[in-house]
Amino acid sequence: MMVLQTASASVASPSSSLPVAGSDKVGHGLAYFLLTLWWAQLVHRRAVPTLLLAFALLGVAIEFLQGASGWRTFDVNDMLANGLGALCGGGLALAAPNALAELERFVYYDKQDRRRPGY
What we know:
Layout: H1 2-11, H2 23-40, H3 48-69, H4 76-95, H5 99-107
Helix pairs in contact: 2-3, 2-4, 3-4
């Protein structure tokens, strides 16, 4: 589902951009960071490098599709932002394999629940 959303957002007509030059690169990086981090929480740790590579290649493929579409532009810097986001998401997943589960526990922690030491 998230892959389809990323792909459809990448080939859709651009609506508006922030007035800061290069601000869309932050969005590209963040999208691929979150995409890779989320999926990396669902696969075995040994599969994370393959997943990272798959999402980086997805970013490259989408840029080529955008260039071929006629209404979007091909941008190597978008590819780099996508790849860097995937690399950071995969890196965090390897460094902290339960990062999203811990975040969920922190956000939804009931203060009366004493079963979770350390919080």
